[in-house]
Structure to design on (523 residues):
């Protein structure tokens, strides 16, 4: 069954949604959307370094994404505005990544695959990376779920309950780096942030609890992956963007349903 | 032994002292109110007592095993986060349904259990926060301006509830307020703060203290005579050398009125 490229693509999309659903919910709640974006852009530099150093791409992206997060945290502690330092770092990392990729023989031609993903070319090994990364993220979030939620609701409240909000933020950053590393092959650096945010935003209007929102975001993400692949097959559209477009349509539908319920 | 004590506590932000040499203690079952003008360091003191802010000097001593229930000044749950009141009470520890219902009932808002937090009124939200604090069966409730944004009847009802809770559970209460009359009636002890402790004592003692009257500009009401023989507001217990920025600017109009 895994021999069929379409089956592998569908499984990769579903596996990714398992992580982006709950993690994307946190990204939305904590207004970290731009942070997710920046981490994903920086991942291109990781791709270039990994290709040059002949180490696994997932490892390269993971390391660079974590370095990026650490740098942003350091700059924020020194009083730099978050969006400014993210903007500087994200675009520089992306630019350096694109420049660096051009030095790697043979890599230049499929640069667009790293930017936009190539879900139809997902191999069995890639599938293992996606599901492995997703499983790690889901396990991390499930383990710390209550603490993460408390710290997200109010940091003082978390502190007074004996929790350390900084540690929870770190857990989310780590999860974000893991997702980027796992997903870059599937949806590409430019669309990862969309897969985090759009399904979670669509789920918001339909959910009454944080848990319901996380589960709904996962279902919408998986639905978007399948819908996007179907569109890609039927109309021969690029797969990665088709998936995000499908997620956006889900978002509009959810907004309409939410509005009808209220009115 | 006290439940909670600050010993010569100082807290600094960016090189400036927000709190300087503050010592206080909270004993079992008493209601202590912290009053002071805006920017006097009330919330900072609470946050230092809770361990959220580090002490630049001095220390905070907690009784072993002390359970604190904390009600923050404002809780703004992001509108993107769906959260019912009942679910909120189960943070960070899951609570049985019976316990959350009982806590909401005790706080006087049993009807909001399944409402979204973002849709609650200010008074309902404060009571849900109080209900959550009660779930840990606290020895000490710490409330930061709990009646901010409530109308006067709502405020009075909230303080009655606090007194009832103290009577029924024996919990001590430390709360911050900037409104004076209602809150002082409900307190055993009042601490008047303006970067340092200006005066403290029973509500009657504090409301007659010149430091208090200078800070809050109440000099022309009631016990005017008490004030008039103290022409110099010099914080008699202060150490020398602190008078540069003290008394605060807020104190000036009050004095001017008194001498007129």
């Amino acid at each position: 069954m895994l021999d069929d490229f379409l089956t592998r693509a569908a499984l990769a999309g579903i596996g990714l949604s398992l992580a982006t659903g709950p993690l994307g919910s946190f990204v939305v709640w904590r207004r970290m959307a731009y942070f997710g974006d920046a981490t994903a852009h920086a991942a291109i530099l990781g791709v270039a370094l990994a290709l040059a150093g002949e180490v696994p791409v997932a490892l390269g992206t993971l390391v660079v994404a974590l370095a990026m997060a650490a740098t942003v945290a350091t700059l924020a502690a020194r009083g730099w505005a978050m969006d400014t330092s993210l903007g500087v770092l994200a675009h520089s990392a992306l630019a350096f990544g694109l420049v660096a990729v051009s030095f790697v023989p043979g890599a230049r031609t499929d640069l667009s695959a790293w930017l936009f993903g190539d879900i139809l070319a997902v191999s069995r090994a890639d599938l293992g990376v996606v599901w492995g990364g997703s499983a790690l993220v889901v396990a991390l979030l499930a383990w710390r779920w209550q603490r993460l939620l408390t710290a997200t609701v109010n940091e003082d409240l978390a502190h007074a309950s004996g929790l350390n909000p900084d540690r929870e933020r770190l857990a989310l950053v780590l999860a974000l780096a893991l997702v980027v590393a796992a997903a870059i092959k599937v949806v590409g650096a430019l669309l990862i942030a969309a897969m985090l945010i759009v399904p979670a935003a669509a789920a918001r209007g339909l959910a009454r609890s944080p848990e319901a929102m996380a589960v709904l975001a996962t279902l919408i993400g998986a639905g978007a992956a399948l819908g996007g692949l179907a569109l890609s097959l039927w109309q021969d559209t690029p797969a990665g963007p088709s998936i995000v477009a499908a997620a956006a349509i889900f978002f509009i539908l959810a907004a309409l349903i939410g509005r009808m319920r209220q009115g | 032994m006290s439940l909670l004590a600050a010993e010569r506590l100082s807290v600094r932000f960016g090189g400036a002292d927000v709190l300087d040499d503050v010592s206080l203690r909270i004993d079992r079952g008493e209601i202590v109110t912290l009053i002071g003008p805006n920017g006097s360091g009330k919330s900072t003191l609470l946050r230092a007592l809770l361990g959220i802010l580090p002490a630049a000097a001095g220390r905070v001593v907690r009784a072993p095993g002390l359970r604190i229930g904390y009600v923050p000044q404002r809780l703004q749950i992001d509108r993107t986060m769906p959260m019912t009141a009942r679910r909120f009470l189960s943070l960070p520890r899951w609570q049985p349904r019976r316990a959350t219902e009982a806590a909401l009932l005790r706080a006087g808002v049993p009807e909001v259990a399944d409402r979204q937090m973002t849709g609650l009124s200010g008074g309902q939200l404060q009571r849900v926060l109080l209900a959550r604090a009660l779930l840990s069966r606290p020895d000490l409730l710490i409330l930061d301006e709990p009646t901010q944004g409530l109308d006067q009847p709502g405020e009075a009802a909230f303080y009655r509830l606090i007194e009832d809770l103290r009577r029924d559970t024996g919990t001590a209460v430390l709360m911050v307020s900037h409104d004076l009359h209602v809150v002082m009636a409900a307190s055993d002890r009042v601490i008047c703060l303006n970067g340092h402790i200006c005066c403290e004592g029973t509500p009657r003692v504090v409301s007659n203290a010149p430091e208090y009257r200078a800070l809050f500009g109440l000099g022309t009401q009631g016990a005017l005579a008490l004030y008039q023989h103290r022409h110099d507001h010099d914080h008699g217990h202060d150490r020398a050398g602190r008078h540069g920025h003290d008394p605060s600017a807020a104190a000036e109009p009050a004095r001017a009125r008194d001498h007129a």
